[in-house]
């Protein structure tokens, strides 16, 4: 597979984007359960160890529609699908970040324990120059997600075999106390189909990180 990198090499590639003033946005994309959040948080820690405060994570999940909105849309059982996000709000946040605004920029945060997004729950300070945006659909080549094309300075795809995704996602939903029938719907009715859609309909990433037993 071309353009594959290790996580350590990826940190170096991202660090090289930092010119000390211009804000850069890196998209980290993968299927549900691929480890996007873990990778982004690890990169944030490594980058800030070199220069404190220059990197921060922007999770796409903060832009989930509220459950009340999803009920009105009759889409709550499919929360996490492309049409269950405020793509316009995400695009506005990315444009503000790219504009290098001097003031701190408020962004929403998804509370997984409560399954809701909390608006303006975190501030991105002006000194944060490396924005690690992570989510399933950032490279999706379908409207309205395709309007994000061109907003990223580097794009990264996590490649994880579906069998490993199933194992991780099962463990995740067991941790949150779901019953076997609920887990079955989450996996085969939502998470894994979303992973296939992401894989098949996303624009190619600049770099790929292999995890699990993904083929080289």
UniProtKB/TrEMBL annotation:
GO terms for molecular function: kinase activity. The keyword Kinase applies. Keywords: Kinase, Transferase. Residues 186-216 are annotated as: Disordered. Gene3D superfamilies: P-loop containing nucleotide triphosphate hydrolases. SUPFAM superfamilies: P-loop containing nucleoside triphosphate hydrolases. The keyword Cell wall biogenesis/degradation does not apply. InterPro entries: P-loop_NTPase (IPR027417). This is Nucleoside/nucleotide kinase family protein. It comes from Meridianimarinicoccus roseus. The lineage of its organism: Bacteria, Pseudomonadati, Pseudomonadota, Alphaproteobacteria, Rhodobacterales.
